[in-house]
Amino acid sequence: ESVRNGQRITTMTSGQSRLPCAPSVFKFARHGEQGAWISELLPNIASIVDDLCIVKTMNTEAINHDPA
Question: Model pTM?
Fold first, then answer.
């Protein structure tokens, strides 16, 4: 409940009694002036992170990927 915060869930997951979350198997570290979290899988991105725009949040009323 803390993950979905009362939102409806899709038909794919509606039958699940649990909605487990798993941690990443890769390490993340802070990079750049703003301390953006970047995965160890992206070392080149980490070196230029201050030149990028990272969107950290988005909002939609849709609960599925179809409209995308």
Answer: 0.59
